[in-house]
Write a structure and sequence with these properties.
Elements lengths: L3 H5 L2 E6 L4 H14 L27 E6 L5 H12 L4 H5 L2 H8 L2 E3 L7 H4 L12 H18 L4 E6 L16 H9 L8 H11 L4 E3 L9 H10 L2 E4 L6 H14 L3 E11 L2 H5 L3 H12 L1 H6 L4 E8 L6 E11 L5 E11 H21 L4 E2 L18 H17 L1
Parallel strand pairs: 1-2, 1-4, 2-3, 4-5, 5-6, 6-11, 7-8
Antiparallel strand pairs: 7-9, 9-10
């Protein structure tokens, strides 16, 4: 339950990719919860273990952000609501005014080194002729003006943009001073859009979450900088579907000493994320994030392959089919199959709200750098060696218990 002091605080949520399906669903959810029209099912922090942590109420978040597309937020939101929630226009009419207000606080985003697929979607991007430093200052200014306009005490920045191609890390990406020097020298190859967003958030003192697989966001130099500046950060790649099941199911085989021989996974989705991942360069970042989980849990390299197929007719619905071939007593070979079907944005949105609340809490408690307690929310949790979902969730419960005891 929020204290009187916390109720007086004004917290902003600045979403990168604010006109995308996930961001729109985040806002739809927050506004509907604020009006008491839906329960908070699917939100981890709505569970009893977290209700007395003095978390910011979901309905109190003030939204803004940036995007590279002009499509009005209310159009994206209505499409997302029709596909995933309800085609009842009367329900949507309860929140359309709120969405229109947020739309005025969505600024142009950057496409720097995001790949041709993302560049081709842009019709409202920051001028590409700017230097790296100018782009960085532009993003910082957007966050700062949003905070000032609404009189916010704090702003949490969350990256919900499309997956970028992998960034090849160089020595400058490991050292804050060398990294700053490369930017000052206008080395455009040293950064991607996600790097600039994370850097801007840290310089503005804003907690930062990378919900995407883009490895350019939280490079080691920026993590170190966050530690020095007292800013909590965490990523990478929100764990919402197939990998969530995989990280919960793989420990079962370990507990019975069953050897996994092969684990094949096929993912099909048709939203904007699926369209971007249809580009092999962007897709490789996602596959790397999804495919590492199994070996991290098992401790050995079973034959494993993950495919991502773009199926436009599916829209926001994601289907994952997994085939697990394993060996048991006396060499007997057996198999397990499962099919996971869910709405991508519906699975992701409540986690984004959870992460915003927990990142804001960490900032208020003076935490800095990586937030390992949030490992259960990510496919590739930075700074964490534990990949078993149940054990990761225990890390979060332990953290909550410690906060309650203070």
């Amino acid at each position: 339950m929020a204290t009187e002091e916390n109720q007086k605080r004004k917290v902003g949520l600045w979403l990168i990719g604010a006109r995308g399906s996930i961001a729109a669903t985040v806002m739809i959810g927050a506004f509907l919860l604020r009006k008491g029209l839906f329960p908070a099912t699917g939100m981890v922090t709505a569970a009893p273990a977290f209700t007395d942590l003095d978390l910011t109420a979901v309905g109190d978040f003030i939204f803004g952000g940036c995007d590279i597309r002009r499509e009005p937020l209310q159009e994206t939101a209505w499409r997302a609501m029709r596909e995933d929630i309800s085609s009842d226009r009367e329900i949507f009419n309860h929140i359309v005014g709120d969405l229109q207000e947020v739309d005025a606080d969505i600024s142009p985003g950057t496409c720097r080194n995001c790949g041709d697929m993302i560049q081709g979607l842009a019709d409202m991007a920051i001028n590409g002729s700017k230097t790296v430093t100018e782009e960085l200052e532009c993003v910082r200014g957007q966050i700062s003006r949003f905070k000032e306009k609404h009189g916010l005490d704090s702003v949490v920045v969350i990256n919900l943009a499309s997956t970028e191609p992998s960034l090849t890390l160089a020595p400058c990406h490991h050292d804050p001073e060398k990294f700053a020097e490369r930017l000052a020298a206008n080395d455009g190859d040293a950064v991607q859009a996600s790097t600039l967003y994370a850097y801007a958030a840290i310089l503005e003192g804003c907690p930062y979450i990378n919900f995407t697989p883009s490895n350019g966001a939280l490079i080691p130099a920026l993590i170190r900088m966050a530690e020095m500046k007292g800013v909590p950060v965490m990523g990478n790649d929100g764990k919402t579907g197939e990998t969530l099941v995989k990280s919960a199911l793989a420990p079962l085989f370990l507990s019975r000493n069953l050897q996994i021989l092969s684990w094949e996974g096929v993912n099909m989705l048709g939203n904007m994320d699926g369209k971007v991942l249809n580009d092999p360069r962007n897709c490789q970042s996602k596959l790397k994030s999804k495919d590492q989980v199994l070996q991290k849990i098992l401790g050995y390299a079973a034959h494993s392959r993950v495919q991502i197929n773009y199926v436009p007719s599916l829209g926001d619905q994601k289907t994952a089919w997994d085939f697990i071939h394993f060996q048991g007593f006396l060499g007997a070979k057996m198999s397990l199959q499962f099919t996971w079907q869910g709405y991508d944005s519906i699975l992701a949105a409540p986690l984004v709200l959870d992460l915003a609340r927990l990142a804001d809490l960490a900032k208020r408690h003076g935490e800095a750098g990586l937030m390992p307690q949030l490992a259960s929310f990510f496919k590739s949790p930075l700074g964490v060696d534990e990949y078993r979902h149940g054990a990761q969730y225990e890390m979060l419960l332990d953290y909550a218990a410690k906060k309650r005891s203070k």
